Each structure stands twice: as structure tokens, then as C-alpha cells.
Amino acid sequence: xxxxxxxxxxxxxxxxxxxxxxxxxxxxxxxxxxxxxxxxxxxxxxxxxxxxxxxxxxxxxxxxxxxxxxxxxxxxxxxxxxxxxxxxxxxxxxxxxxxxxxxxxxxxxxxxxxxxxxxxxxxxxxxxxxxxxxxxxxxxxxxxxxxxxxxxxxxxxxxxxxxxxxxxxxxxxxxxxxxxxxxxxxxxxxxxxxxxxxxxxxxxxxxxxxxxxxxxxxxxxxxxxxxxxxxxxxxxxxxxxxxxxxxxxxxxxxxxxxxxxxxxxxxxxxxxxxxxxxxxxxxxxxxxxxxxxxxxxxxxxxxxxxxxxxxxxxxxxxxxxxxxxxxxxxxxxxxxxxxxxxxxxxxxxxxxxxxxxxxxxxxxxxxxxxxxxxxxxxxxxxxxxxxxxxxxxxxxxxxxxxxxxxxxxxxxxxxxxxxxxxxxxxxxxxxxxxxxxxxxxxxxxxxxxxxxxxxxxxxxxxxxxxxxxxxxxxxxxxxxxxxxxxxxxx
Length: 490
Fold this sequence. Notes:
By secondary structure, this protein is α+β, with helices and mostly antiparallel strands. It has 4 domains: 2-153, Transcription Elongation Factor S-II, Chain A (Up-down Bundle); 161-240, Recoverin, domain 1 (Orthogonal Bundle); 251-329, SHC Adaptor Protein; 336-412 and 427-488, Zinc/RING finger domain, C3HC4 (zinc finger) (Herpes Virus-1). It is 42% helix and 11% strand. It contains 17 helices and 12 strands. The protein has a 4-stranded mixed beta sheet, with helices on one face. Strands 7-10-8-9 form a 4-stranded mixed beta sheet. A hairpin with a 7-residue loop joins β3 (267-272) and β4 (280-285). α3 (21-41) runs parallel beside α5 (88-113). The longest helix is centred in the first third of the chain and has 26 residues, at 88-113. Mean pLDDT is 80; it is low at 1-13, 76-80 and 416-490.
């Protein structure tokens, strides 16, 4: 890779100092390349299908966000006058160099491919599709680092608790590190061999192919190959040796590949979803000879594949006879413990409830923690909510649900905090329940008559920091015809 190969000569400028006028010249150069690429990719003869990853759209959105991100370093203020936050400047330099490199590669395909670029089966056209996926990954990453155009890379929330602890322990608040540094730290907790295995691991984690690993890329990898305790083993069995794994494949390419196996129902392949980063997309041939692609929700891939095998959906990986046995990846279920503090116990007593009860249905104990926001509820309520909420967000804070964790709430007992069982010192004490919202609610309840909100269906919203009228109005807007009734407490 050109960007990676030039790393040695550019390393002095990859420091944490604020972007300079030289950096801005590179940004302007990248923007011109992107504009040229947009013109070429919209040529009717190219006939690109308007399905992800759609290159003209990716280039347009990248241009808009890139301009917004670099705006603080432009205009009346001299370049460098805006103080960069954390390792923001280093990330921006790495990103713009990588973006320029990929844009040049794409333009070169048009130049050298000539007429062959218009042939869907040509090698240069396939390379253009692969570059489109890289542009998609870079755009997703830039959005994650700069939500709304403002840098938040130093506060990015990793989905998995163990992954978050590893990153903080190894790199603190950095959002980007060189592959070599990352590899050394990862090897200290997950053993893997140097050489071919290390190179294969890099090709999986380094989604943007720039010889650096960002906290976003690490988050995606740990979500794809969860759970953490068997991360490398999962990766080996699901990506390295599994014949059904396809890297850098699009939705349309999956269909084209599976069309060769229409005579063999149960043939399947799986790939990284390019519309929902951090999730898998599995395509298979149905018994009726059709092709279906699905995204398993909040389920480790090996569980989805095992379940699909039992249902005769996933039998022949890439049409082959041998279907790997993934049952060895199963481990005894481990439920994280959530402890109730005395303060939380008293707060819930004041509102006539208990901490362990799900706030949505007020009937079942909380047994599920949403990741990454950490809100707690029971599994039936989460399932009901997801069936009615097309955007798959948390019912409390609307954070995107990246995964779930099975938990056990330990009720508060007087004096229990004085005697900790041996081995529990490192147990996570933060219950992730937003106590501040509860306190605000209680303050509001003391000023106005108390109301209880009852929602029809398992996915109804219970108490939150908002007033009952706010909840009723919000639920009505989202659920449309869903019935909501408010009853006065006695």
C-alpha cells in the first residue's frame, strides 16, 4: 500500500501537533481527486447498481464530511490555530493520506483499464468494487471519529466491556495506533503466531488498509468475533479456516456467487455487512431455489451458523460438502453480575419499585444489558421492542444497539457491601442504570401529581426521566396506532 509504504518518510509529520498548511494542501488535493472519481463513476456506461457500496454516493458523502471536519482549520484562521484534541491531528493526517492513496488507485483503474473498466467481470472492475468497500469503511470510520463533524475519537465507546478495558489499559484515550504497537499489546493477552497468522489477522482488523488500527476498527473486530475470552480462536475458525467466509464481497456479489449453487439448497456464505458495520450478513440458497441474505441480530456468528445448520439453512459453505463443526466455540454461559448499592435501593424504595424489576414491564427481573449504553431490561421486553422498532435502538436512550449481555441483578442486602467474596474485587460495580435520570424523575414527581404509565404490549416504555405526558407523546409519535393510557396512582 502506498500510504503504508510511505509511513517511514511521513512519520515525523504524524505527531500530535495541530494540522498545518501542508496538511490542508493534501486535503484539497484529496477533494479534487474525489470530485474526479465522482465524475468517472457516474458514467452511464459504467452501469453501477445503486446498492451498497455505491461509489458515487460514497464519494459525495465523504467529500461533504471531510470538508466539514477540516473546516475549523480553514478560513480566516491560519492553519494550526485551531487546537487539536487528543490525537485528532494524527488521525486526520493518517486518514487524508489513506484517502488520497485510495482515490489515486481508483483513478488509475479507470486510466489503465480503459474499456475493460466497463465490463463487470473484468479484473479492474472487481478491484474497483473492492476499493468501493474500502471507501465505505473509511467513511464509516470518519463518521465514528467525528459524529456531527466534531472529533469524539478520544471518547469513543467500545461495545464489549473486556475490549474497552484492554484498549484503555494499552492505549489510554488514543483513537489510532500503528499496527506494530497494537499487535504487541494484543499478543500479550491473546496469543497468535508471528508470520502468516499475524498478517492474516492484520488483513481482518485493518479495515481501511493503512497500517494503523483505530479504536473503531478494534470495536468492529471484537463485535464480529465475540466473545473476548476466545477472540482469536473464534477468528481462526470463522475467518481463517471456514470455507464460507468471504472478505470484501458485496450484496450483489454474494447473489452472483450463490447463483452457481441454486441446485443445492443450504449452500451459504457470510461476509461483513457494509450497511451495518460490526454485524454479519449471511446469504444462503433456500429450498425453493431462491437466495436470501440476512443479518443475525445481537447473536455471535457461530451461534447463528449452528442454529442455521439445525434448521437446514446453512449446510454447504460455498457449496462444499464439508461444513465445519463450530460447537467447540460454545462455552458455559457466564452472566455478568450487577450489584445494587444502598443508594439505589433507597431511591427505588421511594418510587415504590425495586431495582431488579424491568422498568418496561414491571413484572420480570432485568436479565439483559444493552451494549454499549449499558441500560438494563428483561429479554422479552427487548425482543418486543426490537420487533416494533425498525432502527434497533435502546428504548431508553435511543443509542444504537451493538450487542447484548446476559446479566444477573443481585438484590441489595444490608451489610452485604462489607463482606466481598474472594475474587470479586475486580467485579464491575457500575450497574449502568442511569441513577441521575431516576433522581430527576423523583424531583419532578414531588412537584406534580404522581402518574404511572402503562403501555399495551411487551415493548411499552415504563418510567424515565421525562414526565408522563412527554413519554405518552413520544411513544405515540413512534408507535402510531399503539395504544397508550395514563392512569393516576393511588
